[in-house]
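Question (not urgent): is this output format expected?
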Amino acid sequence: MKLTVLGCSGGIGGARSRTTSFLVDDDILLDCGTGVGDLELDALRAVDHVFVTHAHLDHIASIPLLIDSVGESRRFPLTVYGSPETLRILRSHIFNWLIWPDFTAIPNRHRPFLRLQPVKVGECVRLGERAITALPAHHTVPALGYCLDSGAGKLVYTGDTTYCKPLIAALNQTRNLRHLIVETAFPDEQHGLALASRHLSPSLLGAMLDELEVSPQVYISHLKPGVGERIMAQIACYAGRLRPRALVHGEILEF
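Got this back:
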């Protein structure tokens, strides 16, 4: 499998600051932030599956526009996967005819442009030879991470999360884990804000990495604009076994 970074920033502000979105092979999106807007129309049409970690705007902003752009040209619905709570939020607050049309009923409920498919922690979605499993995460709203398994190797994307024991346990049970994409949104001087907003700071990230028994390459995402260099400098002081580095817009990870 191949993951292309369309966006990995914690905000906007600059030519390469796109919020979280990853293209997996040609037909899967992991989250659907502003980075999706850089894809050409043919690439948007090729996307059949969107796996959403949680309902915050920086992770779902492009879903309504994506469906509006390609819905009529598709032969079957675009499927959005997420926790039951996340899908309820999308239905109630986005696809509600007020913020955006309800594409689960357009052109009709028998052949809609959009299908919402709930997944729960531990549940596996198989797409041909590929498997995508929902993992636990701990954020201010219900949230998931995802493990992608190509059969040859695995990649885990945590989504937005603070220190989370169940997630650490799930990672330690993931054999042949090649890549781990984990957020770190705030520097250590904003440790209290990280705790309140249930994000990671470098010290919280270090505590999490200290408990890992697996040995993936660790990539840092969701760096807040303007403080990314400071966050990465603090992470560079981490003295543990794993050596995290910043994820880069446009980077491709294979596994």
